[in-house]
Design brief:
single chain; about 325 residues; alpha/beta; 5-stranded antiparallel beta sheet; two-stranded parallel sheet; 10 helices; elongated; Type II secretion system protein K; T2SSK_SAM-like_2nd; transport
Length: about 325
């Protein structure tokens, strides 16, 4: 009489094990399907964001092209031109809809786009420190003054010069005495492609943040545009110039942009000499920034664009994705 009960108990246990296995397999399949859906959604969102930011870059290139066409006869770039007006953050549906109305605002994606175009030649180009076998004493004084004005730690200019000279080889036309610099660059620090990578040269994040609005590292030496440069850069660029005089130039150009270098001389002391190739009133390099904010994340793309006549060439591009503070 007990054997049937034992058999029924074993059958029940076997059934429970089978049900458990099936439930486990089903849960695993559901989890794999969920992960696949999430991965596909993330890839699709990433691709869409990349295309949107690429569209913002194309928009900026079009604005720079129209500016070049308008300045073809007399190239002058200043902060009163359309390219210098930043794009305030706006809902993406306002760009996608043919007509803006209440319906499109409600149905549009919860994504917001903003951007700006900045004159890269409004900053001091660190490439000027890399010309010739030795650093020009004038360029060294410029960097030292600029570091002092932004309250960078003592010795920042020397550390930056030493790091850049070690990372970049001397020009090919340099004499044989510069061979040691070339050898050092082969085993020295990595070459920074942008200001964010100056930490490779030993600079702290705080020091980089202080210098970032005023310096840039471009592929070649460029003059500083006096129509767009901040007063700190203008004051550091010339010997014998202080911040107050540089501010006077900044205020004067707001009322009437400089048309040539001779106009700038009217606002500078007679002792200040504007050397050829160190200052100008036009620019060829621009920094284009596009930002896409969605939910709690912001995707930012920064591009370096060189304007070669009527051709816009993208030289560098970098993206960052960060979580916004709540």
């Amino acid at each position: 009489m007990r054997r049937p009960r034992q058999q029924s108990g074993a059958a029940l246990l076997t059934a429970m094990i089978i049900v458990t296995l099936i439930a486990s397999l089903a849960a695993g399949m559901v989890w794999q399907q969920y992960r696949a859906v999430q991965t596909e959604a993330a890839d699709r969102a990433r691709a869409q964001s990349a295309w949107i930011l690429q569209g913002a870059l194309d928009w900026a290139r079009l604005i720079l092209l129209e500016d070049a066409k308008g300045n073809r006869n007399k190239p002058v770039d200043h902060l009163g031109e359309p390219w210098a007006v930043p794009l305030a953050e706006a809902r993406l549906s306002t760009f996608l809809a043919a007509e803006r109305n209440a319906a499109t605002d409600e149905e549009g994606p919860e994504a917001f786009l903003s951007g700006s175009i900045e004159d890269a030649q409004s900053r001091y180009n660190l490439r000027a420190l890399l010309t010739g076998p030795q650093v020009s004493p004038l360029e060294q004084r410029v960097l030292e003054r600029l570091c002092s004005q932004v309250n960078a730690p003592p010795g920042t200019a020397g550390a930056l010069i030493a790091g850049l000279r070690a990372a970049y080889p001397a020009p090919a036309s340099a004499p044989a005495s510069a061979a040691s610099a070339t050898d050092l660059s082969d085993s020295g620090p990595l070459r920074p492609a942008g200001l964010d990578q100056l930490g490779w040269l030993g600079l702290s994040e705080d020091t980089i943040a202080r210098l970032q609005p005023y310096v840039v590292l471009l592929p070649k030496t460029t003059p500083v545009n006096l129509n767009t440069a901040p007063r700190e850069v203008i004051a550091a660029l010339f010997d014998g110039l202080d911040l107050a005089t540089a501010e006077r130039l900044v205020q004067a150009r707001r009322a009437k942009p400089l048309q040539n270098i001779a106009d700038a001389a009217n606002y500078l002391p007679a002792t200040v000499q504007i050397a050829a190739g160190r200052a100008s009133v036009e620019s060829s390099f621009f920094l284009v920034t596009g930002r896409l904010r969605q939910d709690e994340r912001q995707l930012e793309q920064r591009s370096l664009v060189e304007r070669q006549g009527l051709t816009m060439v993208v030289l560098a591009r970098e993206r960052s994705n960060r979580l916004l503070p709540q």
